[in-house]
Design a protein that fits this description.
This protein is of the alpha/beta class. The protein has helices at about 5-10, 20-35, 55-65, 80-95, 110-120, 140-150, 160-170, 180-190, 195-200, 225-230, 230-245, 255-265, 285-295, 305-310, 325-330, 340-355, 370-389; strands at about 15, 40-45, 70, 100-105, 125-130, 155, 175-180, 220, 250-255, 275-280, 295-300, 315, 335. About 50% of the residues lie in helices and about 15% in strands. The strands form 2 sheets. The protein has a 7-stranded parallel β-sheet, with helices on both faces. It has a 6-stranded parallel β-sheet with strand order 10-9-8-11-12-13, with helices on both faces. Helix 4 crosses helix 5 and helix 11 runs parallel beside helix 16 (about 340-355). Bound molecules: uridine-diphosphate-N-acetylglucosamine.
Length: about 400
């Protein structure tokens, strides 16, 4: 069979998403699969790791993602239970659909779980956003990254340091391709559609009193277990945020885990007042609008470090390490940790001087998904030709 005929007739590319940060990475890949000549058949599988309207449905809508073809509806659980449940429910999907390959993105439990199932069944796996390392094994995501990269067949990377990390772990360089950043593909495609912050506040979901953001505002997100699961860490962090909010009104988009812990530890007083607004988890276009207009962003998210770098907005990362060092070396990101004095000093620097300028890293140009799909199609065709020979 000719290459193009085979690519059209072969089993679908099975695209897996599970949690919020996966959705913006998969949207451009699905578009690129459809736009490829010939179009590659694709199926979208949602593991259901994130399931709230705010954590899942609104993001699907904002990104123009199609409804998932299959939803495994695994929901929440301990790491072991969640990972095992994804594996158990994903296996029959592989058996029933006989995909040509599985594409996984990022570093969440669903990424590792589906990779493990596919690899053991001999189905090729492509990992998008491979090779990133925080070198902190207390992060569940780091374990997911290291293990996924060991057993995936194709490793698509966002920055060059990823290749050094993979080589150090004994991974053959030929498996890795530097393609750029699919999350930035989504950002560039949607930037003009970002919803103005005033509208997001007006549309509600904001618990009064509303802050006055006329003179500027900062955006906050926090959800890492290491920051929000213990009262001794979450309390001081919220106290630091309260101090920051005396200098600049803050809009705090609350992850369900963080909201629950604020209530559980009785820390609500730190985040109540006219200068700090608690928002529900935001849709993609709302978040883009909020970040684009912000004077600074305080976060412990991985993706937001990259998005602020692409937008040229100063970012203070409330962590001791980052798996995305290019955002610090070339972008607008600064690792500040949790120290209240350090946070306030850097906020003051940004407010008086505008903060780090930064530049957009190599190949963060909106075309990463196109490069991935072009490479994947060639790789699949070559594999097929070898199998037939
Ligand atoms: C997961 C990812 C993390 C990613 C984050 C983005 C792993 C190991 N972690 O962490 O890398 O940065 O998503 O949000 O995969 N919950 C809801 N509704 C939902 C989903 C979760 O209320 O739709 C609550 C549940 O109480 C749940 C908790 O949030 O127990 C944590 O959810 P979980 O998926 O376990 O991890 P995240 O902290 O969201």
């Amino acid at each position: 069979m000719k290459r193009d005929q085979w690519l059209c007739a072969t089993g679908p590319v099975l695209c897996v998403v599970g949690a919020r940060p996966n959705f913006m990475k998969m949207a451009p890949i699905l578009r690129a699969l459809a736009a490829h000549e010939p179009a590659l058949p694709a199926l979208l599988v949602h593991t259901g790791q994130h399931y709230d309207i705010d954590m899942s449905d609104r993001l699907f809508a904002g990104l123009g993602l199609p409804r998932p073809d299959i939803n495994l509806e695994v929901g929440s659980g301990s790491h072991a239970v969640q990972t095992a449940e994804v594996m158990r429910r994903f296996e029959p999907v592989l058996d029933a659909n006989r995909p040509s390959c599985v594409v996984v993105v990022g570093d969440v439990n669903s990424t590792l779980a589906c990779t493990l199932v596919a690899a053991k069944k001999g189905v090729p796996v492509a990992h998008v956003e491979a090779g990133l390392r925080s070198f902190d094994r207390s992060m569940p995501e780091e374990i997911n990254r290291v293990l996924t990269d060991q057993i995936a067949d194709l490793l698509y990377t966002t920055e060059r340091v990823a290749h050094e990390n993979l080589t150090r772990e004994g991974i053959d360089a030929s498996r890795a391709q530097f393609v750029g950043n699919v999350m930035i593909d989504s950002l560039l495609a949607n930037r003009a559609l970002g919803i103005p912050p005033e509208e997001t506040l007006r549309r509600g979901g904001i618990e009064p009193p509303e802050p006055d953001i006329g003179q500027g505002y900062g955006v906050v997100t926090l959800h890492r277990p290491s920051n929000v699961d213990q009262e001794e860490t979450l309390g001081p962090l919220l106290a630091a945020l309260r101090d920051v909010s005396e200098r600049l009104p803050l809009l705090f988009a609350l992850h369900p885990r963080t909201r629950a812990n604020i209530e559980r530890f009785g820390l609500r007083e730190f985040v109540t007042g006219k200068t700090i607004a608690l928002l529900p988890p935001q849709g993609y276009l709302e978040m883009l609008g909020l970040m684009s207009g912000a004077r600074l962003v305080l976060t412990d998210s991985g993706g937001i470090q990259e998005e602020t770098t692409a937008l040229g907005v100063p970012c203070l990362t409330l962590r001791e390490n980052t798996e995305r060092p290019i955002t610090v070396q070339e972008g607008t990101n600064t690792l500040v940790g949790r120290d209240r004095g350090a946070i306030l000093r850097l906020v003051d620097e940004i407010l008086s001087g505008g903060g780090k300028r930064g530049r957009v890293p190599e190949l963060w140009d909106g075309r990463a998904a196109e490069r991935i799909v072009a490479h994947l199609a060639d790789w699949l065709a070559l594999r097929h030709a070898r199998a037939e020979a």
